[in-house]
Amino acid sequence: MNQDVKTLLAAFLCDVWNDGDVAAAARYIAPRYKVHHDPGDPWDGQELDLAGYQERVRVSRAPFPDQRFDIVRMVAEDDAVAPTWHWTGTHLGDLPGFPASGRLIRMSGITLYDVAAGRLAGHWQMIDRLGVYRQLRGG
Amino acid sequence: MNQDVKTLLAAFLCDVWNDGDVAAAARYIAPRYKVHHDPGDPWDGQELDLAGYQERVRVSRAPFPDQRFDIVRMVAEDDAVAPTWHWTGTHLGDLPGFPASGRLIRMSGITLYDVAAGRLAGHWQMIDRLGVYRQLRGG
Known about the structure:
Chain A has four helices and six strands. Chain A is of the alpha+beta class. Chain A has a single domain, classed as Nuclear Transport Factor 2, Chain: A, CATH 3.10.450. The longest helix of chain A has 17 residues, at 2-18. Chain A is globular. Chains A and B meet through strand 3, strand 4, strand 5, strand 6 and helix 4 of A and strand 3, strand 4, strand 5, strand 6 and helix 4 of B.
């Protein structure tokens, strides 16, 4: 069972976030998805329906259209999965205060996803925001 | 078994990090402890023996002697446990660039600990460094 949860999560990150297949989110996301805790994310604290989640993917991917998550390790139970990950993306679209720079940005993070009835129902996430800002500044 | 791992982790955070009982680390820490990934931590990437881990606890706790981790949720397998957590600490000791301010600092994070033979053998951690810096600056 835990392996099923890991397979689900790996496929989700690949299809939805790496490939940008927003329609595929319908296969992975529960009817109500709660962003429990995600400092710096514009949707932090919100509950999203599928359309809301798809909008989050579109807006988040726009500045880094070639972005890619690479999973380092996953810990799972029946109702949760926590991947550690590295991320890379080329800064090709504007961000508030940071016009597109063409820089390759590297980031790492950990996420704990809720799993319910074979779908992802929310997350608690921590990313290295300070590391990203330093790279965007070019410092 | 997963419950044992969660009980171990909760007791470790309480005894060693919240209470500052550095000697108690001997009950929880494996002979070799690897800091796999912990951006901003002075021991990031290092392998520590027990004395090295105890030194990390002492140095890290000194600026925030009343610090406290509160676990939000844990996901565990036999060989790993990942807690999400909130942290508070009063800034009573100097940090590089930030003299003691008396401010109550709030932080959140996620950690994935390796577990081997009933001991903690390493971690991959992500904390909200940017949020902490903003609070230390008093901005």
